[in-house]
Amino acid sequence: MENEKIRGISCDVSNCVYNRDSCECTAGKIKVCSTCCDPECCDETQCRTFKAKC
């Protein structure tokens, strides 16, 4: 079942199950987190909602 697109969220990760047409995120909600523990390292993030296509 495909979820509705979240307005304003784009994605270029083509191997994610929630990526439609290589640009739209179709997840019902997303979770983004920091990839590092250092407070000075705030510009690196990761989408925790990512699921690889089978």
Describe the structure.
The chain has strands at residues 19-20, 24-25, 32-34, 45-47. It has 54 residues and is mainly beta. The strands form 2 sheets. It has a two-stranded antiparallel sheet with strand order 1-2. The two termini are 15 Å apart.
Query: SSE string, helix = H, strand = E?
Result: EEEE
Low-confidence stretches: none
User: How would you state the average pLDDT, rounded?
Assistant: 83
As a percent range, the share of strand residues is: 15-25%
Q: Can you summarize the main beta sheet? A: 2 strands, antiparallel
Largest sheet, spatial ordering of strands:
1-2
Helix content: under 10%
Q: How does the helix and strand content classify structurally?
A: mainly beta
Shape, per Cα inertia axes = elongated
The tally of beta strands, per DSSP, is: 4
Q: Give the CA-CA distance, first to last residue.
A: 15 Å
Number of helices: 0
- Rg computed from alpha carbons, rounded to a whole number of angstroms: 12 Å
Name the features.
54 residues; two-stranded antiparallel ribbon; mainly beta
